[in-house]
Amino acid sequence: MLKTLYMAYNNIANTMTIFVLFIFVFTVAGMDIFGSYQEGDELSQDCNFSTFYLGFSTLIRCSTGENWNNIMHDYYAVNKTISVIYFILY
Hints:
Oligomer: single chain
Radius of gyration: 15 Å
Shape: elongated
């Protein structure tokens, strides 16, 4: 099993690199679109796009499925169609 994992390491590393790059691009876009808005039911000082670190961790949180739709609804109050398009594309 370890030999199989070792042989698949390059593919796993490539997939993780693409995933991190994908999150990086969406974090920068989220900071541009939603950076000034920090209040809501799900949004707090730990879940918003005010800084790169918080935006990155917010998108990781959305990737796991933890209330991503509630975060989208909080941003829906700011930019209605853009927030839906942003989170559906993500």
